[in-house]
Write a structure and sequence with these properties.
Elements: E1 10-11, H1 22-28, H2 45-65, E2 72-75, H3 78-92, E3 99-103, H4 108-119, E4 123-127, H5 137-143, E5 148-152, H6 166-176, E6 179-183, H7 195-198, E7 202-206, E8 217-221, H8 250-288, E9 292-295, E10 305-310, H9 315-321, E11 325-326, E12 328-329, H10 342-346, H11 351-354, E13 357-361, H12 368-387, H13 390-399, H14 403-409
Parallel strand pairs: 1-11, 3-4, 3-5, 5-6, 6-7
Antiparallel strand pairs: 2-8, 7-8, 9-10, 10-13, 12-13
Helix pairs in contact: 1-8, 2-8, 3-4, 8-12
The structure holds pyridoxal-5'-phosphate.
């Protein structure tokens, strides 16, 4: 049954960005006009008010990550956090060694930072992942050499939602005395975490992926055991204890802090709610459609992520057919190109299946009615597009399979 109560368009692309939560927006509001001071102005009330707000926000971010406020460096977003972590560590430790370890499914902010380092004479190991998108910690350990200065492995993948075994990798990094960075953009605010549980030394986060504003991020940098050194990538007035110069985005920082406080209050109930919604969507698709495949790990995945390949259907065609529903095909970043997503290639998906994939990104605003509506629309359009596909007809005829058998094979 397709619910008639939903309002279009439906946003189900929360891995790309999220709306600013109303309470976050209210917290930010006074810092655009009334309290417009520069947090670095030490001589008057305007500056003090801004500084106080920024420090409160820093403590809110730190609390969510389980670290000290002084270990948080404000940035312009996670792209900058990733760049600062990787290039900053590489420059600071170049006399120790010039080898880094990462995975093939990292965000471009990590992969392209590594590529640049390669052009500057560093060596980078890009570890493969298994069919569910997981890095094998044993591969990390095998890749470590005397030259290794940094391991960078993401907490959760932005396309397929797979969670990485970070605590195991953290133990290995510690044992070998190698610094450990994680891009935790998709994880922060979605599932509980602590930098000490993971034993990470650096962690990237972004406000706009967890109901905060765009254009503000944070980098956690461990201050003791070990004290991580960084060569700043932005020179100027020496803000953020010299780690990142530039006038702080005060409303942005306040918004990120408020988003972290909100996440902390609602995280566990919201994670359970989203997991239930995702399973509702999965249940509807899997009972009504044959020849569909789940991309990513069946259980070790982000609560709001469902990535599905619909065999015999072009992802782009399905996307176009789903009018009024915002989802992504392949990867949001590469969907302008015809190359299949490198993440889907890395989990061993053949091109045809990679091209038929849709990423559903559930979030705070989504309801069960919306899930039912989206499921009904997807089912209807997949059936319609398949009916137009000679390849689907041929496959059915050749295999002699019926819909039920297809369904059983479509894991
Ligand atoms: C969105 C995203 C980034 C980039 O964050 P911005 O704040 O938009 O620069 C980095 N890594 C991952 C995994 C992301 O999903």
């Amino acid at each position: 049954m397709k619910p008639t109560t939903v309002t279009l368009p439906i946003y189900m692309d929360h891995h790309s960005t999220t709306p600013v939560a109303p309470e976050v927006f209210e917290a930010m509001r006074p810092y655009f006009s009334e309290h417009f001071g520069n947090a670095a102005s030490r001589n008057h009330q305007f500056g003090w008010a801004a500084e106080e707000a920024v420090e409160k926000a820093r403590a809110q971010v730190a609390h969510l990550l389980g670290c000290k406020p002084a270990e948080i460096v404000w940035t312009s977003g996670a792209t900058e956090s990733d760049n600062l972590a990787i290039k900053g560590v590489a420059a600071a430790y170049r006399e120790k060694g010039r080898h880094l370890i990462t995975s093939q499914i990292e965000h471009h902010a990590v992969l392209d930072s590594c590529r640049r380092l390669e052009r500057e004479g560093y060596r980078v190991s890009y570890l493969p992942v298994d069919r569910s998108g997981r890095v094998d910690p044993a591969d990390v350990e095998r890749a470590i050499t005397k030259e290794t200065i940094l391991i960078s492995i993401m907490a959760a993948n932005n396309e397929i939602g797979t969670l990485q075994p970070l605590a195991e990798i953290g133990r290995i990094a510690k044992r070998h005395g190698v610094l450990f960075h994680t891009d935790a953009v998709q994880y922060v605010g979605k599932l509980p975490l602590s930098v000490d549980d993971w034993q990470v030394d650096l962690l990237s986060a972004s406000a706009h992926k967890c109901y905060g504003p765009k254009g503000v991020g944070a980098l956690y940098v461990r201050m003791s055991k070990p004290r991580v050194r960084l060569v700043p990538q932005m020179d100027g007035g020496g803000h953020e204890k010299g780690r990142r110069s530039g006038t702080l985005n005060v409303p942005g920082c306040v918004g990120f802090g408020a988003a972290c406080a909100l996440a902390e209050r609602e995280l566990s109930t919201e994670a359970a709610r989203l997991t239930a919604l995702r399973e509702r969507l999965r249940g509807a698709l899997w009972t009504q459609l044959e020849a569909i495949h789940l991309n990513g790990h069946p259980t070790e995945r982000l609560p709001g992520n469902l990535n599905v390949s619909f065999e015999f259907v072009e992802g782009e065609s399905l996307l176009m057919a789903l009018k009024g529903i915002a989802v992504s095909s392949g990867s949001a970043c590469t969907s302008a190109t015809l190359e299949p997503s490198y993440v889907l290639q890395a989990i061993g998906l053949r091109d045809e299946l990679a091209h038929s994939s849709i990423r559903f990104g559930l979030g705070r605003g989504n309801t069960a009615d919306e899930v039912d509506f989206v499921a009904a629309e997807v089912i209807e359009n997949v059936r319609r597009l398949r009916a137009l596909s000679p390849r689907y007809e041929m496959a059915i005829e050749e295999s002699g399979l019926n819909a039920v058998q297809w369904g059983a094979s479509g894991s």
